[in-house]
């Protein structure tokens, strides 16, 4: 049983895309998978076809008003979802109690043996929600958007948070690697960025996944249709790259 957080405080780098596609890919390999939507934007819940306004969600769990068991819903893509909530946007000011870093870990403890993988999608912030994800996780995947030259800014600060979480909340947290997303091999900027990502990975004492996820219109199409990328466009560049990434991730497990 593994808990995988997908995080980077930079917005739009492919966290939600990577978490949902990873959940789908692991599920299609026969694993029992739970996707956990920790982002107040609730994009992962939306993409998997769940209306967060009409179901119990993680906010209710953190408030102690629902159990995780009551909150998990099966989604069309096959795996289970722990829905997010817009109300989580106020988490930093609302949850001030001692031990607040452990809310998600405690919640997941009660059900984790029912799954082989729990994948956590996180918001583009450095607040208590991300700390909760890092505290609960065994592994961390950091997507880095290749299309945006500012994508690397802030990774050092993020690494500081990771180191703090390791020190105070979760000694075992491992960084599986940096995953380059929205890659375009024809762009010189993208090529140059690859070298810089490698350097940052070394500073973080981790690796860059060999599989870089290419920019592909089928990602947006499958998300719009709330379909599985691997079924909707199995021959698309992004589907092939995500398959390679999942294989590489699983190989790193053993
Ligand atoms: N490989 C790709 N090819 C084309 N579009 C992509 C790809 N990956 C992600 N996108 C698109 O980029 C946008 C941002 O992706 P995504 O929502 O996964 O990022 P995010 O890091 O979760 O963003 P946020 O920080 O807002 O939560 C989305 O519109 C998504 O459809
Ligand atoms: Mg997102």
Question: What report would you give on this structure?
Answer:
- It is a single chain.
- With 254 residues, this protein is α/β, with parallel strands linked by helices.
- It has a single domain, classed as P-loop containing nucleotide triphosphate hydrolases (Rossmann fold).
- It contains 12 helices and 7 strands.
- The chain has a 7-stranded mixed β-sheet with strand order 3-4-2-5-1-6-7, sandwiched between helices.
- The two termini are 13 Å apart.
- The model has no long low-confidence stretch (mean pLDDT 95).
- Magnesium ion binds at residues 15-16, 39, 43, 121.
Key attributes of the depicted protein:
254 residues; alpha/beta; Rossmann fold; seven-stranded mixed beta sheet; 12 helices; 7 strands; binds adenosine-5'-triphosphate; binds magnesium ion
Write a brief caption for the model.
With 254 residues, the chain is α/β, with parallel strands linked by helices.
Based on the coordinates given, report the CATH architecture.
Answer: 3-Layer(aba) Sandwich
* SS summary, helix count: 12
Bound molecules: adenosine-5'-triphosphate, magnesium ion
Q: Could you state the order of secondary-structure elements as H and E?
A: EHEHHHEEHHEHEHEHHHH
Structural class: alpha/beta
Span between termini: 13 Å
Name the beta content range.
Answer: 5-15%
Going across the major beta sheet, what is the strand order? 3-4-2-5-1-6-7
Largest sheet: 7 strands, mixed
Whole-number count of domains: 1
How many beta strands in the DSSP annotation?
Answer: 7
Q: Specify the CATH homologous superfamily.
A: P-loop containing nucleotide triphosphate hydrolases
- In the CATH hierarchy, the third-tier topology is known as Rossmann fold
């Amino acid at each position: 049983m593994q808990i995988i957080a997908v995080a980077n405080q930079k917005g739009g780098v492919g966290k939600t895309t990577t978490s949902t596609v990873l959940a789908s890919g692991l599920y299609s390999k026969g694993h029992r998978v739970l996707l956990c939507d920790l982002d107040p934007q609730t994009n992962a819940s939306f993409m998997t076809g769940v209306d967060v306004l009409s179901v119990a969600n993680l906010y209710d769990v953190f408030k102690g008003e629902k159990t995780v068991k009551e909150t998990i819903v099966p989604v069309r893509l096959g795996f289970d979802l722990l829905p997010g909530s817009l109300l989580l946007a106020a988490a930093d000011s609302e949850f001030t109690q001692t031990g607040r870093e452990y809310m998600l870990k405690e919640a997941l403890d009660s059900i984790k043996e029912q799954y082989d993988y729990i994948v956590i999608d996180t918001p583009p912030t450095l607040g208590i929600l991300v700390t909760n994800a890092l505290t609960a996780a065994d592994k961390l995947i950091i997507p880095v958007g290749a299309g945006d030259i500012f994508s690397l800014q802030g990774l050092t600060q993020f690494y500081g948070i990771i180191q703090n979480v390791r020190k105070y909340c979760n000694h075992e947290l491992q960084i599986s690697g940096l995953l380059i997303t929205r890659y375009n091999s024809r762009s010189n900027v993208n090529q140059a960025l690859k070298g810089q990502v490698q350097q940052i990975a070394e500073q973080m004492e981790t690796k860059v996944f060999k599989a870089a996820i290419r920019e592909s219109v089928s990602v947006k199409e499958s998300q719009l249709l709330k379909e599985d990328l691997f079924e909707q466009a199995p021959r698309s560049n992004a589907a092939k790259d995500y398959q390679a990434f999942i294989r590489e991730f699983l190989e790193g497990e053993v």
